[in-house]
TrEMBL record:
It comes from the Bacteria. CDD domains: crotonase-like. PROSITE patterns: ENOYL_COA_HYDRATASE. InterPro entries: ClpP/crotonase-like_dom_sf (IPR029045), Enoyl-CoA_hyd/isom_CS (IPR018376), Enoyl-CoA_hydra/iso (IPR001753), Enoyl-CoA_hydra_C (IPR014748). Transmembrane segments: none annotated. Belongs to the enoyl-CoA hydratase/isomerase family. This is Enoyl-CoA hydratase-related protein.
């Protein structure tokens, strides 16, 4: 994912069908400089294409999940007149990153170990589930630096909390603590810090043992329905039913049901 001269700021581990992608700039609160964005996109595309991966977990090292754009690099580009590189990063990095998460044919979990701010919050919101450690939180920090929202925030934030609350959080950025995030729908679960790793492992293991093709079809169907009319959504559902109905897992599950046994899914 990196050249020999570049530091490894994104770690990738694949174990027992679970790919864990860890943002690894703890000294910078896992903020996203260009090198890290390139590595993150490479890791996401790698696991999306790996048939051995049946669940993806995105997390951060140290005290933060991800605090979004590296503002030190941002300021340097502003001062050097590198405006092209400054704002082309949305099309070159952030949009491909969130697209890779959204279009993956396998479940994606955000293990929000600490603050998720700006594009970091957007990345977490693009995942299917957000397990949040007590003491962590979300901050839609864009207005604080006089920028619009990016990395899919305009799509996923209203879907999770509704338009009115989304606008409030965007206009008046603050850190939404874990428990409030749970009440708003930003968090799927809030977990004590001492139980965080165990809970993430259990959830990822459960997802990795599930019907991977069906999970992928479900997330595609839900995303499609959000932006199409009723008839189009039903037609897409039909396509996905046909697709999943031809899988090995479907046949095995039906046979297991008839035999009153628990199905063993292989993700195919």
């Amino acid at each position: 994912m990196t050249s020999e001269s570049a530091p490894t700021t994104v770690l990738l581990d694949v174990t027992a069908g679970v790919a864990t992608i860890t943002l690894n700039r703890p000294e910078a609160m896992n903020s996203l400089d260009n090198a890290t964005k390139v590595q993150l996109l490479g890791a996401l595309r790698e696991v999306a294409d790996d048939s051995a991966v049946r669940c993806v977990v995105i997390t951060g090292s140290g005290r933060a999940f991800c605090t979004g754009q590296d503002l030190k690099e941002h300021i340097s580009l502003l001062e050097s007149g590198g405006s092209d590189a400054l704002f082309s990063t949305v099309d070159e990095h952030y949009n491909p990153i969130v697209t890779a998460i959204a279009e993956m044919d396998k479940p994606v979990v955000a293990a929000v170990n600490g603050v998720a701010a700006g594009a970091g919050a957007s990345i977490a919101m693009a995942c299917d589930l957000r397990v949040v450690a007590e003491g962590a939180g979300f901050n839609l920090a864009f207005a604080g630096v006089a920028l619009s929202c990016d990395t899919g925030a305009s799509i996923h934030l209203p879907q999770l909390v509704g338009r009115a609350k989304a606008m409030e959080l965007l206009y008046f950025p603050r850190t939404v603590p874990a428990q409030e995030a749970l009440e708003l729908g930003l968090a799927t679960a809030v977990v004590p810090v001492e139980d965080f790793d165990t809970e993430i492992d259990a959830l990822a293991t459960r997802l990795a043992a599930g019907p991977t093709v069906a999970f992928g079809a479900m997330r595609r169907s839900v995303a499609f329905a959000a932006h199409h009319d009723f008839a189009e959504a039903l037609a897409f559902e039909s396509e996905q039913m046909t697709r999943t109905g031809s899988t090995h897992d479907h046949r095995a599950a039906v046979e297991a049901f008839v035999a009153k046994q628990r199905p063993q899914f292989e993700g195919r």
